[in-house]
## 1
Amino acid sequence: VGAILTFMENKNEVELGELLLSLNYLPSAGRLNVDVIRAKQLLQTDVSQGSDPFVKIQLVHGLKLVKTKKTSFLRGTIDPFYNESFSFKVPQEELENASLVFTVFGHNVKSSNDFIGRIVIGQYSSGPSEANHWRRMLNTHRTAVEQWHSLRSRAECDRVSPASLEVT
């Protein structure tokens, strides 16, 4: 059964790319630390010069957007290495109601940025893989937990995760 679930979970109509993230919670400081390590095989949004991808990280508490942070954007690549760290203040009693929304965009100077893909990790995880990453982080405080995630479409995230509906 596990193999069938894994197969179905990875069967997106369009491969949007993957994102490698590391999560770590420090209870004494009430800090949720997020490392956006790298992405690979991102859907190319600009065929002429390649994508200029960046990741927007949004902390949602319950159904309220609390904080937004962004990586830098890297020019002309679909396999960016970010190695950027972000820290969010999340008191331990609020952790169970927190969700992190990761959205990958192609930077676009002429118009609005091009949506590439999204995942949600936390209370309103967008799938079993994301829920598993959150659970592993909750069970291993003060230890970084790293995992690859397949990006999902905005429609899919909006359908399964109320937190996705709270962000842009």
## 2
Amino acid sequence: MASFGQPRPEDNQSVVNRMQKKYWKTKQVFIKATGKKEDEHVVASDAELDAKLEVFHSIQETCTELLKIVEKYQLRLNVISEEENELGLFLKFQAERDTTQAGKMMDATGKALCSSAQQRLALCTPLSRLKQEVATFSQRAVSDTLMTIHRMEQARTEYRGALLWMKDVSQELDPDTLKQLEKFRKV
């Protein structure tokens, strides 16, 4: 029963019709699984949809890759900042021991390296935010769309199965025979 107590169209189908529908749907699944050639007109009518699905899968892969890249970048940024800071501290420490012009240069270079390391670490906050935004997009939008695509694929398989059934019935169709015409209408 559908909402509001009204019967669904499927409730009125006979057992034979439901079995035929299942048969043709299963046949379509089999055709798809074995890679047999499908009707070229049906495939051509889905070309736009298939192109959009390719774009979606590209977005899905790109999100995954972007998350991996941002994570690697953050790790490498932390490592280089740490190394740069250690070198700066080392130069500043050595500058305290050396009172010559070279010591002054080591002190200035050490301060510059420590400052650069701090600025590099400041990039981690926006990168974390980017990573969080991409992860949220991937978890919500991409996964929701993926669920919709799975439902659409099931509906498409059912639809193509019905088209196979109609094609089969229409090949046997004799317009002069009313019973066959009724059978075609049912399909």
